Structure formats: structure tokens, C-alpha cells
Amino acid sequence: MDRNEALELFSRADAMFRQGNYEKSLNALRELARVFPDDKTVLYARALCLERLERRVEAVRLCDRLVREHHYDKAVILKARLITTPSDPPPGANEDEAATICAWPTRADILKTEPERHQIPTPTTAANFSWIAGMGIVVCAFLALLPVLIIFFAQADTTVPGALPTLFPGRVVIVYGITLCSAISVIIFCVVIVDHNVSISPRRVFLGATACGGLVALLPGPGWLAAVAILYKGFGLSLLKSTGLVVVGLGVQLIAVAIILYTLDITSIHSVYMELRAGYG
Predict the structure, then answer these.
(1) Selection from 278, 266, 267, 260 nearest residue 153 by Cα
(2) Contact present, 213 and 180 (Cβ < 8 Å)
(3) Buried b vs exposed e over 171-197: b needs ≥16 C-beta within 10 Å?
(4) What's the rounded Cα separation, in Å, for the pair 274 and 278?
(5) pLDDT tens across 230-239, in order?
(6) Helix, strand, coil share (%) of the chain residues, nearest 5
(7) What is the CA radius of gyration of the chain?
(8) For the chain, which domains are there?
(9) What is the pTM of this model?
(10) What is the rounded CA–CA span in Å between residue 169 and residue 275?
């Protein structure tokens, strides 16, 4: 992305901000932040969008970074406004004055430093690779642990020679649910952290990822749609990426089911029915 492309993208973000499309404006600014992660104008504009979206904790965090790294005076004023101004200002508040103090940066302010100094290949950064590698290891560990839990926790011994052991249906559901929720939550957590870099609270990501993992694993249909909505509206991911994460979660579900069926040597729907019917507990 060269300077002209960056200016054009920033102008689009500006137009969306003025139209009240703060979420779309923030997404456009995130694209700029991938190439210009330390540009003070991009950081400040993101803080303004987060303020309008009532995500004040994240906005204050960006203001602190602007003051710490760039000694940016406007960030000091914006932080004071974020901390002292209520979400719903009382009637008669001087909104014009506040808008002037914390105005959107002008086109002349954007990207005064050379792009080459900040340009980094986001998909191959060491930090992102570490998150992705860690995610893969944890998810594989969960799936590898699944057959062990099924064998030693969800099966009951049988006294009939040559017969398959019966199942504890309740225990199968518990093992399946905990494993799937955990694996899908890890995937969502890592992807959101990589996408947002440092602009979002890890605690908020953890809680949202856990909720999405439970919805995808345990509530087919409506749960999937709710998870997409949380990722799209709550975390600002694109609709395509939000849907893709849910689809990946469903893929992990299919792998887990295949592992369970292989572990129990169940080869047909009828076998599943008979095993559960014979089970107890």
C-alpha cells in the first residue's frame, strides 16, 4: 500500500465516520493500521471511532499509547473527555465545542512519515505466527485428548464376552461439549487477538470467544447465527471472517464426532442409536 492508496482509504474512513457508520470506518482504519501500525493519525482516528461506539476502555488504551509513544496533545484531551463525560451528556452540553476539540484528523495530517518505515507483512509477523501456532497446538491437544476421555470416562465395562462396552450418554455429552467449546473458543480467541493487535482487552476477547464456542458447539442453527453476530458486531470482524470462523468451528465439530465414532468402533447411525439405548447413567 503506497501513500496515495493510504490517503484514499483514510478518506473513505473519514466519509463513513461523518455518515455515522463508525463500525465500517473502524474496519477501514484497521486495514491502514496493518501497514502503518504506529502512525499517530490512524491511532487517533481509531480512538474517535471507538468513542462513538461506546468502547471507551479500548479508546482510552489507544490514547495512552499516543501519549506514551508520540506525546500527542489531542489524545490527552480525548482521554479526559472519555473519562469525565457521561455516555449520555446532559441537555445543554456544548457538543460543538467538544467536536472541535476532538475533531477527526485532516487529510494533511495523515501519514506524514514514509510508509516504508512502518510497513510490515502482517500475515508473517512473528507475533501472529506465534498465536496461530499456539492455537493449532492447543486444538490438536484437545482433539487428541478426546478419545482418551471417551475410553476412560464415558464407557462402562461389560460382563458379556466379546460385546462392546456400553456408554454413559450423559458423560459422552459432557466430554464432547467441554472439548468442543474449549477448542472452538481457542480458535476464536487467537484470531480476534491477531486481527485487533493491541486495541482490545484480552479479557473481553476471552469472554466473547468462550460464549461463541459454547453457541457453536451446543446450539446448532440459532447458536451459529448468534456467534456470527457477536464476532461481526462485538469484535468488528468482517462478515466473511466471522462466518468463516463459525464454519471452522463446525469443521472441528465434525472431526471430533469422527474421532468419537472411530474410538467406539461405531460405523452406522443404527449403531449409535443402539449404543445410546443400551447405555445408562
Answers:
(1) 260
(2) yes
(3) bbeebbeebbbbbbbbbbbbbbbbbbe
(4) 6
(5) 888 877 778 8
(6) 75, 0, 25
(7) 25
(8) 3-117 (1.25.40.10), 122-278 (no CATH)
(9) 0.51
(10) 9
